[in-house]
Each structure stands twice: as structure tokens, then as C-alpha cells.
């Protein structure tokens, strides 16, 4: 029997009871730009760092000290997407729903009030990438980073980004080419009193482009540093996998951002991250499946694919 066919049959058996795991996508979300925004957000929170040079009076350590990362939450992502969809399809740009329903009515209709301890929301329109949108919410003014409102002045988005009170986030990007701004973003933060244990010591992972240079980034947050951090890059076959060590880029070894910068890359190349601790435990992000090296809004691949769908893409 064809070896690829045997592998496919085995994977069909293994995937008959797939459970949604941390870092995976549900119904196409988070897409790449949403995942990128989450990763850049945690880079800012963990290390008070942004890839572009900011004025000295913006994101100062005194006003905005480093804080813990926030974890992606599917319910928060769906809540944020509900509002981005509303703005994109119904032509408003505001925190309240386009029909006038108040923001907290939307929140309480979609979240468990017994668990909700604190909430904040950022919105924006017209920005393409996750890097661009975090840049705007930090600067409050322009994409360049050269003109920003100083700390303490019109920096409400910055306050939400850097608040230590939140532990989960959902960020949505919705496009409607017939609408005024084309692209609409909503970012919802929550302090969830029912989520006592983080789903993983790897809060986020993604890739981004800084000055046209590809960077693979993953966050680690635990009481101890990992002994090994790797990215696993795949072509079409699982046997094509190549592993590379990530180096500490920002923060500390136990709470930091790890990075790998390849010299070359392929569109839609699959990848995942592993962190191994001193006791031999290995954590994977995403829990299963693969992230994809999406390079633009017009890329033909999804941001995440299951192990099974990667094999199904092969010719038997």
C-alpha cells in the first residue's frame, strides 16, 4: 500500500476525537492578522517594547511598566468579531452597536456576568496588519511612530493595552471592501474571575514582518525558564520538518519573547513552536496542527491547519 495512504489512514484514526486546544483556530479565527496583533501585544506588555522607535515620552517605564501577557480567549474573540462585523456591515464606527444598543448590553449578552471582573475595548478602522493596529493604538495618531500623543495625554488605548488587570483578550479584523474604512478592528480585554489557571505557559505565537524581514515569535510565561525553544518548519510532507532554535529576544528567560529570523521563507510554510523545561516536559504551540506563514491579506492559506488537513493536501 502507498506509504502516504497508510499515513493518511492513521491520521484519520487519530483525529476522530479532536478537541479544540490552545493556539488552534475555530471557524477561521484567529486569522493571521489577529494572531499577529496578539503576539505584538504581548511583546509590548512583557517587555514594554515595540519594533518601531517611539518618542521618549511614549510608553515610558514609569507610566507603563512591563506587565504579564494576556491569553487568547475564544469567547472574547467572538465578542470582538460580533462588533467588527456590525461596524463593517452597518456603517458605524463606535463602541455601542450600530443600532444604538449599549456596549455593556452586548458584553453581558455574550459573556458570563458571574466571571466578568473588568472589561475594556479598543476599536480602529483602516489598518491592515496586526503590527499596524498595535502601533496605532500605542501612538493614537499615526502609523509611523514618529508622532504620538505623550503618556498621560489622549492615551486611552495605551492604558488598555498595558493594564495589569486583564488576563484574556480577543482581537478581530473584519474586511468589507464596500464600506467606508474597508477594515474594522475590535480588541476586547477581560479580567475573567473563573479562569484561574492559564491554558499554557505559551500565551501566544505567530510571525510578523518588521521592515520586510520575517520574524517568528513566541511568548513564554512561567516560574522557570525553558531549556530549549524550537520552531518546527514543514514543507508539504511531515517528514520534511526542519527544527531551529529560537533565541531570547525580549524580557527575561522565564517571562520573555523568543525569536527566529530565517534568511529565506516560503509562502504558506507550516510551523509550530515547542518549549521544553528542565524536567523534560515539552509544551507545544499550537496544541495541535500547524500555523501557516501567511504573508499578506491575499494569501491563499489559512492561518492554522489541522494535522489531518496538511496530509489531505498531499497527492496520494
From TrEMBL:
Q: Is tRNA processing set as a keyword in this record?
A: no
Which Gene3D superfamilies does the annotation name?
CAP
**All copies of domain SCP, residue ranges:** 67-189
Q: Name one Pfam family in it.
A: CAP
Signal peptide boundaries: 1-21
Question: Which UniProt keywords are listed?
Answer: Signal
Under what name is this protein listed?
Answer: SCP domain-containing protein
Q: Which organism is it from?
A: Heterostelium pallidum (strain ATCC 26659 / Pp 5 / PN500) (Cellular slime mold)
Amino acid at each position: 500500500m502507498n506509504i502516504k495512504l497508510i499515513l493518511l489512514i492513521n491520521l484519520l484514526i487519530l483525529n476522530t476525537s479532536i478537541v479544540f486546544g490552545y493556539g488552534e483556530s475555530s471557524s477561521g479565527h484567529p486569522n493571521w492578522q489577529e494572531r499577529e496583533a496578539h503576539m505584538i501585544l504581548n511583546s509590548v506588555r512583557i517587555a514594554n517594547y515595540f519594533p518601531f522607535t517611539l518618542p521618549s515620552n511614549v510608553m515610558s517605564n514609569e507610566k507603563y511598566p512591563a506587565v504579564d501577557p494576556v491569553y487568547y480567549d475564544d469567547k472574547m474573540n467572538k465578542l470582538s468579531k460580533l462588533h467588527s462585523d456590525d461596524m463593517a456591515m452597518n456603517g458605524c464606527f463606535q463602541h455601542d452597536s450600530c443600532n444604538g444598543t449599549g456596549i455593556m448590553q452586548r458584553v453581558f449578552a455574550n459573556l458570563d456576568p458571574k466571571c466578568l471582573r473588568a472589561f475594556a475595548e479598543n476599536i480602529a478602522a483602516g489598518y491592515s496588519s496586526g503590527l499596524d493596529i498595535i502601533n496605532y493604538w500605542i501612538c493614537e495618531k499615526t502609523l509611523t511612530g514618529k508622532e504620538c500623543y505623550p503618556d498621560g495625554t489622549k492615551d486611552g488605548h495605551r492604558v488598555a493595552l498595558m493594564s495589569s488587570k486583564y488576563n484574556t483578550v480577543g482581537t478581530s479584523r473584519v474586511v468589507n471592501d464596500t464600506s467606508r474604512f474597508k477594515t474594522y478592528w475590535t480588541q476586547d480585554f477581560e479580567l475573567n474571575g473563573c479562569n484561574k489557571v492559564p491554558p499554557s505557559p505559551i500565551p501566544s505565537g505567530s510571525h510578523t514582518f518588521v521592515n520586510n524581514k520575517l520574524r517568528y515569535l513566541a511568548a513564554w510565561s512561567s516560574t522557570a525558564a525553558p531549556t530549549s525553544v524550537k520552531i518546527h518548519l514543514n514543507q508539504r510532507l511531515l517528514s520534511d520538518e526542519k527544527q531551529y532554535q529560537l533565541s531570547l529576544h525580549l524580557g527575561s528567560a522565564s517571562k520573555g519573547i523568543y525569536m527566529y529570523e530565517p534568511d529565506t521563507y516560503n509562502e504558506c510554510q507550516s510551523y509550530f513552536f515547542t518549549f521544553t523545561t528542565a524536567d523534560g516536559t515539552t509544551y507545544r504551540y499550537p496544541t495541535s496542527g500547524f500555523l501557516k506563514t501567511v504573508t499578506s491579506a491575499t494569501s491563499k492559506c489559512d492561518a492554522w491547519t489541522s494535522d489531518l488537513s496538511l496530509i489531505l493536501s498531499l497527492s496520494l
